[in-house]
Amino acid sequence: MSTETSNPLVVPAPDGADLAVRVRGLHRAYGETRAVDGVDLDVVRGEVLALLGPNGAGKTTTTEILEGYRHRDSGEVSVLDHDPAHATGAWRSRIGIVLQSANDLGDLTVEESVAHFAGYYPSPRDVGDVIESVGLAAKRATKGADLSGGQRRRLDLALGIIGRPELLFLDEPTTGFDPEARREFWELIGSLKDEGTTILLTTHYLEEAEVLADRVAVIARGRVIACDVPSRLGGRDESLATVIWRDGEHVHRTRTHEPTREVAALSARLGGEIPGLAIHRPSLEDIYISLIDDDTEDAS
Amino acid sequence: MTAIVTAPAVKAPGAISLGRRRVSIELKQFFRDRQSAVFNFLLPVLLMVIFGSVFGSQKLEPTDITFAQYFVAGMIASGVLYTSFQNLAIAIPLERDDGTLKRIQGTPMPKLAYFVGKIGLVFVAYVAQVTLLIIVGKLFYKLILPSGAQWFTFLWASVLGLIACTLAGIAFSVVPKNGKGAPAIVSPIVLVLQFTSGVFFPYNQLPEWMQKFSALFPLKWLTQAMRSVFLPPEAAAFEVAGSFELAKCAAVLFAWTIGGLILSLLFFRWNKRGQD
Q1: Nearest CA of chain A to the CA of B40: how many Å?
Q2: Prediction ipTM score
Q3: How far apart are CA A72 and CA B147, in angstroms?
């Protein structure tokens, strides 16, 4: 594995895992700015990996290097056993890309766009099925320019999956979605995963990462600072729970490793019901924010 | 290698069939886009109607050639420049901005197919525009159509001009910083070339420095070749050289083809600046 595994928060993929993406010591600078400064990352075949991180942390540069859009200064990169710096048509037909902001295809209908892009691939999915599955069946004859923001993202997704990719890159796919649309989207991603598609997802929505991701990697200042399954990221499973209850006007908060014992003791003492009882465990968002805060402190 | 295991069972679509698909998608988008309709069809016809109505019936003394006849040659030569150079030098930066180029770059489509699509678009748009101009000229300004060998000149001048100006447009597409600003850079260039190349005024009446300037660019030579197509042979006396210099026209257009090809290969970019 990596030469430096000094960071205990970065839990590597299991030894011998079949990797769709393998990155070691990736560097890329823009002038003086080191946008990517030693990224190590594995994506196991068949998993959904969520890449989290503040804007400017190096997420987009990293993914666009993996997608073959940008060149790298140094480091090893293998995507489906291929160096994306030397992209071939055969390799491209095995990956799907949903970009962050596209505003093209305004003059074509949904169906025309999807059918056109299907023609680029050796064994595309069925055009009608794909339009249906992204929830644009009612809009198949609508021009791209007349779609709402969320519908446009669905079109982007349709074009990303039409080629039946083994590996799908999703860059902030649900930005601009209402909660219901987001849930439908999550279901679709779930079904792609069930079909065996490997997915590398970048997102700002921690809830999305929690629902979709098998593993989460947090990137800050150009490096991966934590990587694990969502329930264990950053020692989340070992962090203290907070038991909250009310005593008249006074709110008590007790931080403990043993919330059940605490509640049982309280219940015995108060003779049954505990007023205003709540047990709070850190959400993925809490963990994420403390990881980023710690990293920012390290930097200064 | 694991290529045997992972090779797709179905053969990937070839560059030629994808080139054809690109042509058809380019045409759909072009003819549905309001901006391209205005720049490529409405504007040339409008210019012809305005100039034709004001000066059209004036004669190029001492001949019987009407100015409308002279002007059609210039507008058709301009049509080459509109549909190829102006069209691509504006459309490609827009496509670089709106994500078109990025999206297709992320697919297995061979990059050549994109350019095949553009070339197909340019040729179809040109044929449509010329047809429109000739119909308007015929209906309203008594346009006399070329005959015999003039058609041959029309054909090679159009094809060579379109290729030269298409490549120039592809190369020039790296100049505008973004798509929004492209028309402001490209349209004035086209306009200046039109004024100095003898499209709107008789070329032999232009100041010598202006003639020398425009002789560096393809439009002057295209316009001259189109005059040989649409004007009778005696009009050669009006040319600065006393003849239409067709061999020289072909040579200059060919030189621009080679130059445009080299510049395109060297400088064309798929990504926005700083994003590669």
Answers
A1: 17
A2: 0.85
A3: 60
